[in-house]
Amino acid sequence: MNELVKLERGAAPGVATILLDRPKVNAINGEVLQGVLSACAELVDDTETRAVILTGHGRNFAAGADITDFPNFDRQAALDFSRQFNGAALALERLPQVTISAINGYALGGGLELALATDFRIAAVDAQLGMPEILLGIIPGGGGTQRLSRLAGITLAKDLVYSGRNMDPEEALAARIISSIHESDDLQAAALELAARYAGGPASLRIAKRVIIDGYHLTLEEAAEIEAQGFADTFTTEDKVSGVASFMEHGPGKATFSGR
Fold first, then answer.
1. Which CATH number covers residue 180?
2. Are residues 233 and 127 in the same domain?
3. Which range marks the domain in which residue 51 is found?
4. Catalytic residue, candidates 8, 48, 113, 221
5. Average pLDDT over residues 120-141
6. CB within 10 Å: which end of the chain, N or C, has fewer?
7. Catalytic residue among 48, 93, 133, 222
8. Is the pLDDT reported for residue 256 higher than 90?
9. 240 upstream amide cis, omega within 30 of 0
């Protein structure tokens, strides 16, 4: 981490927060991306942390990449920045923990690209989401064209990327880009409640996430084998033993899990 990205623990058992903290609008530059990569490197083998919140300090999640860097970019510098951004987004996407973006204020361009790399996104009522890069004569470079089309469909992705327009939370919810809308003052508490719920889940959550991601781009036959291997892996966990025993004795939904 660095002073622009903070990894915080202690808000709830098993929950960590990656906080983007670059005033005024948490604009993303190479140093921010390196901070995200460092946070992910610390979390990837952390079995005590079972859910992660990504959010922005202050009034905004992240208003996009730091455009003041762009006048000095030639093609190679732009390629390097895009590859660094995609590396950070992929590291975030592949964290074994359940990840939740709490979107406050603007999540535009690179800000939305980071949010799309998490498992879930929740937003404040005054949030604004969008891919405005086309208005600068460029395109998204942090995975936005790819994740947005996979998540919301290619037609809406084209609309947002081609126009550069913003999307309000209601439209984002209808498109299933976000999963819930909250009053601004309640957003962080809602994210923490959701994260704490997943942090109390079984070790099989990590396996489920791995199976979904690894099988997503494979043929059905190949993906089914990934699932079969993951299913078998769950039978090596302590939580499988306690979960099955609890079901047999008390019925569904009564088990307490250790995450192991």
1. 3.90.226.10
2. no
3. 5-199
4. 113
5. 96
6. C
7. 133
8. no
9. no
The number of residues making up the chain comes to 260
Q: Indicate if 109 and 153 belong to the same structural domain.
A: yes
Active site residue 221: no
Total domains present in the chain: 2
Mind giving me the DSSP string for 116-147?
A: HTSSEEEEETT-EEE-GGGGGT----SSHHHH
Residue 13 in domain? yes
pLDDT at 1 over 70: no
**50 occurs within a structural domain:** yes
Identify the DSSP state of 50: -
8 is catalytic: no
Mean pLDDT of the chain: 94
In a domain? residue 68: yes
Q: How many CB atoms lie under 10 A from the CB of residue 32?
A: 24
pLDDT tier at 111, thresholds 50, 70, 90? very high
My answer on whether 104 and 215 are in the same domain is no
Q: Is residue 159 part of a domain?
A: yes
Q: Mean of the pLDDT values across residues 143-154?
A: 95
* Residues 134 and 185 both lie in one domain: yes
Per cent of the chain over pLDDT 90 is: 87
- The span from the CA of 32 to the CA of 208, in Å, is 29
